């Protein structure tokens, strides 16, 4: 449903062209801006972050509200809302502060493997190393029974996932043209996994597909862990600034070893020895982590 059709849809006058004026309100601030026609919840959240990122405490939960002229007050953003006319929205922090502890358990975790494709091999820095670490993560996911979702960016032109990455048992392997991995099929798959709370994300490129995926996921209330030694870009500068930006928004930047050992949590875990052997078997000394 668009803004006019949604219950209590807000807006003043229809906007023509490719963008729609929107007034973004947060706390005592109100800043006019614009979004593409048809923008939804994720783009509104990204715009709030770009306008008020230094004021927003990402350790809190938020609700987006729309000003409804019918009621002369704000209402919670209607489900499926898409911007089609000039409107006013606000970001409201909930009273309960949510501390991001970063705890991981296999039963509430999903692994996202993003665009580890053959055509990227000569272009991405340390690509061989992130393939090795990515394969180790997927082996760990299989041992621990963690669902894995894999995407491939325009595989017709960029090739399939590299042969070194074993996708046996992956819940989904999807082609995409959107940079973010958050496709309708991915959202449906997440909805089918009971109690999912955390996403472990790795692949390429850090400043494009990884960044956009992470921002969409935290916009949906999921906790995101980016695996620094399994994530890279063509440019180390792009990678570094993307990781810094994402860390400031409350996303956890970590390493593959930390992830795997946090998931087993105890030396007495029945899979500990197998996870330990995985860690011992491949630990590239590439210098990638010195460029975080």
Keywords:
Rossmann fold; disordered N terminus; 30% helix; 2 domains; 292 residues; Ubiquitin-like (UB roll); alpha/beta; five-stranded mixed beta sheet; six-stranded parallel beta sheet
Task: Please characterize this protein's 3D structure.
- There is one protein chain.
- The N terminus is likely disordered.
- Helix content is 30%, strand content 26%.
- The chain has 292 residues and is α/β, with parallel strands linked by helices.
- It has 8 helices and 11 strands.
- The strands form 2 sheets. A 6-stranded parallel sheet has the order 8-7-6-9-10-11, with helices on both faces. A 5-stranded mixed sheet has the order 2-1-5-3-4, covered by helices on one side.
- The protein folds into 2 domains: 75 residues, Ubiquitin-like (UB roll) (Roll); 174 residues, 3-Layer(aba) Sandwich (Rossmann fold).
- The radius of gyration is 20 Å and the shape is globular.
- It holds the Pfam family Isochorismatase.
- This is Isochorismatase domain-containing protein 1.
- It comes from Ardeotis kori.
Layout of strands and helices, then pairs:
Blueprint lengths: L18 E8 L2 E8 L4 H12 L7 E9 L4 E4 L10 E11 L11 E6 L12 H18 L3 E6 L1 H4 L13 E5 L7 H9 L5 E7 L1 H14 L3 E10 L3 H13 L3 E3 L1 H9 L7 H10 L11
Parallel strand pairs: 1-5, 6-7, 6-9, 7-8, 9-10, 10-11
Antiparallel strand pairs: 1-2, 3-4, 3-5
């Amino acid at each position: 449903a668009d803004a006019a059709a949604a219950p209590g849809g807000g807006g003043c006058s229809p906007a023509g062209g490719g963008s729609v004026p929107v007034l973004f309100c947060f706390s005592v601030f109100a800043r006019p801006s614009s979004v593409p026609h048809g923008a939804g919840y994720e783009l509104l959240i990204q715009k709030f972050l770009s306008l008020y990122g230094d004021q927003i405490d990402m350790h809190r939960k938020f609700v987006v509200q729309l000003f409804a002229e019918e009621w002369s007050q704000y209402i919670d953003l209607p489900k499926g809302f898409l911007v089609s006319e000039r409107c006013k929205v606000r970001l409201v922090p909930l009273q309960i502060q949510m501390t991001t502890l970063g705890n991981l358990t296999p039963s509430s975790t999903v692994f996202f493997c993003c665009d580890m494709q053959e055509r990227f091999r000569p272009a991405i820095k340390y690509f061989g190393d992130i393939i090795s670490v990515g394969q180790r993560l997927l082996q760990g996911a299989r041992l621990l029974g963690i669902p894995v979702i894999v995407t491939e960016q325009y595989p017709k032109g960029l090739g399939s996932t590299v042969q070194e990455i074993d996708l046996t048992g992956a819940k989904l392997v999807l082609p995409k043209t959107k940079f973010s991995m958050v496709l309708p099929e991915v959202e449906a798959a997440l909805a089918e996994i009971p109690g999912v709370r955390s996403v472990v994300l790795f692949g390429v490129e850090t400043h494009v597909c990884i960044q956009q995926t992470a921002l969409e996921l935290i916009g949906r209330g999921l906790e995101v862990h980016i695996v620094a030694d399994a994530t890279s870009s063509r440019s180390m500068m792009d990678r570094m600034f993307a990781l810094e930006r994402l860390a400031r928004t409350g996303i956890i930047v970590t390493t593959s070893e930390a992830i795997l050992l946090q998931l087993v949590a105890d030396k007495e875990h029945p899979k500990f020895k197998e996870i330990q052997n995985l860690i011992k078997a491949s630990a590239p000394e590439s210098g990638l982590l010195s460029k975080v």
